[in-house]
Design goal:
Elements (H helix, E strand, L loop, with lengths): L2 H4 L5 E2 L3 E4 L6 H10 L1 H7 L12 H8 L8 E7 L5 E11 L5 E8 L8 H14 L6 E6 L4 H9 L3 E12 L2 E11 H6 L2
Parallel strand pairs: 5-6
Antiparallel strand pairs: 1-2, 2-3, 3-4, 4-5, 6-8, 7-8
This protein binds coenzyme A.
Length: 191
């Protein structure tokens, strides 16, 4: 397959990863990757709604059923060299008007972790957020013990803005979270 066809549909292309919306034919790869990564993802992901299977068709349905009101973007993270699905990023809770803010969510398949893929993917999200989407601020909330997630944010220029106790329900418990963010001005100031 040529590089052009591998990256077809991409909204942002980096040196090793690219972002593109999910399509129906991604179902098996998506569900398979999440199921294989279940043990790790369970530790960090917000509690799903009652009756929602976060490791099956429900989760994939959410990827292709993005609301049309512009409040959320979801992109698969895929490898430039062969198109393989690596993970997923979301920019949700998008508010326009005087706020121009979006909230990041992300995961990588466990078999692909620790290779710098998510660091590059978040860089691509920021390029899009502060470029084509015209946002002013991107934020992310992380559990203090999630070292990998913190490093991804630090490496992309986010700063820690605050700390919220018992902020989000993860794996059945209300967990404290650090609140991180980056503004368009800070993003453009990075050399
Ligand atoms: C957090 C996560 C997205 C990181 O993705 P990744 O592709 O492995 O990250 P990278 O390879 O780009 O690594 C970035 C940095 O984090 C470090 N890192 C990655 N995983 C780590 C881990 N489990 N423990 C400690 N450090 C870790 C890397 O060594 C690297 O550090 P460096 O900048 O000092 O070299 C991934 O581990 C994941 O999906 N975790 C489960 C879901 C999750 O936590 N999502 C975020 C919720 S807020």
């Amino acid at each position: 397959m040529s590089r052009g066809s591998v990256t077809s549909g991409a909204v942002e292309i980096g040196s090793r990863v690219f972002l593109r919306p999910a399509r129906a034919s991604d179902r098996d790869a998506f569900v398979g990757l999440r199921r294989a990564s279940r043990a790790e993802l369970r530790r960090w992901e917000p509690e799903p709604p009652e009756g929602f299977d976060p490791f099956g068709d429900d989760a994939f349905g959410r990827e292709i059923g993005v609301p049309i009101d512009g409040s959320e973007c979801r992109w698969l993270v895929c490898r430039v060299s062969d198109g393989v699905l690596l993970g997923r990023v979301t920019l949700g809770a998008i508010e326009r008007g005087p706020f121009q803010n979006g909230r990041l969510g992300y995961w990588i398949g466990t078999e692909h972790s620790g290779r710098g893929y998510m660091t590059e993917a978040i860089g691509l999200v920021l390029r899009r957020a502060f470029g084509a989407m015209g946002l002013h601020r991107v934020c992310a909330n992380i559990m203090p013990v999630n070292t990998g997630s913190r490093r991804v944010l630090e490496r992309n220029g986010f700063v820690k803005e605050g700390y919220s106790e018992r902020y989000l329900q993860i794996a059945g418990a209300w967990e404290d979270h650090e609140r991180w963010a980056i503004t368009a001005e800070a993003y453009r100031a990075v050399p």
